[in-house]
Amino acid sequence: MSIGEERAKDIEERPEQCFDWEQFRAMHAEARFRSIFTTGAVIGGGSVFGAHHFGMSGGRVFLRRQPWLSALAIVGTFTVSYQFWERQ
């Protein structure tokens, strides 16, 4: 109601004119980059902590001996951090 009937009809006919695709692309590219960085930091720190907790020699050993847990942690961390960074 605040934009008027003519403007509303124009937007309804051509919705692509009201969305900035370049801004959308840049926002998601930044969210992906931050998510990858965040996931790397969390998995790096978490694997060292997990290795220490289970008495293993290092984080790589922990990640290789627990492949399902590692994959789940990586995918879950990336998904959650992407959702977080996208909304920021």
Describe the structure.
With 88 residues, the chain is mainly α. It has one domain. It has 4 helices and no strands. The radius of gyration is 22 Å and the shape is rod-shaped.
Q: Which descriptors would you attach to this protein?
A:
88 residues; mainly alpha
Write the layout of secondary structure elements.
Layout lengths: L4 H9 L7 H34 L4 H7 L1 H21 L1
Quick structural overview:
This protein has 88 residues and is mostly helical.
Overall geometry comes to rod-shaped
Please bin the fraction of helical residues. over 70%
- Biggest sheet character: none
Uncertain regions: pLDDT < 50 for 5+ in a row? none
Total count of domains = 1
Classification by helices and strands: mainly alpha
Give, in order, the helices and strands. Answer: HHHH
Q: What is the typical, i.e. mean, pLDDT?
A: 88
The beta-strand count equals: 0
Number of helices: 4
Distance between the termini: 29 Å
Strand content: under 5%
Radius of gyration: 22 Å
